[in-house]
Amino acid sequence: MDTRQQAKIRTFHPRRGRLGDRRGDIFERLWPVYGLEIPRHPDQLLDVAALFGRSAPLVLEIGSGMGEATWAMAAADPDRDYLAVEVHTPGIASLLGEVEERGLTNVRVGLGDAVELVEHMLVEESLSGVHVFFPDPWPKARHHKRRLIQPAHVALLRSRLVPGGRLHCATDWAEYAEQMLSTVEADPGLVNEYDGFAPRPDWRPMTKFERRGRDAGRDIFDLICRRR
Predict the structure, then answer these.
(1) Domain 3-227 -> CATH class
(2) Which entry of 43, 79, 81, 136 is annotated as an active-site residue?
(3) Known binding-site positions
(4) Quick one: angle between helices 151-160 and 114-121, nearest 10?
(5) What is the pTM of this model?
(6) 11-29 pLDDT tens trace
(7) Judging by DSSP bridges, how do beta strands 221-227 and 190-192 pair with one another?
(8) pLDDT for 111-137, tens place per residue?
């Protein structure tokens, strides 16, 4: 895979929205403490221990939205560190506010392209888990190439997982869910932990995007697999 060429096909909409006074203050105060700017063309590895101030298993969340799942899972799992990557600045500010309010020390937030981060800033076998909850479904056929869960990206994510590390995806878009399932099951280095889709785990927090899908009458699909 030509990694630089692959990175040119964005898997997200740039969404640096207006913060407003309250979130603007949160972002200004807390970004220097908890934030990680992901360069467009990274040229050095991320020092994860320096970023978190300790060495611990690391979970990567790609597309953390407003941060509801991130802070809740990090609060319930203090022995692991959580790196959330998002491009929507109001969502980042919301998560930063929760991190401060709840006194969480095991959360950091990246702004930028998660594919660039994984490809160029993380070494192989450096992640204990990857969460991809309700990614952009890119529903139009001509945009399917922009979907995050596709063979090249799954192989990349799998290479960064430790043996036994888990890739957990969730979506409310049925056609994308079927593509996710076929993609991960075709990867020789991953094992689906269920016969098809997983039952919704009680420990996965409800997010705004999941509620929106349920309110629209769409089914929710979870997919959990582990690296061999």
Answers:
(1) alpha beta
(2) 136
(3) 61, 86, 113, 136, 140, 172, 207-210
(4) 50
(5) 0.91
(6) 655 555 567 778 889 999 9
(7) antiparallel
(8) 999 999 999 999 999 999 999 999 999
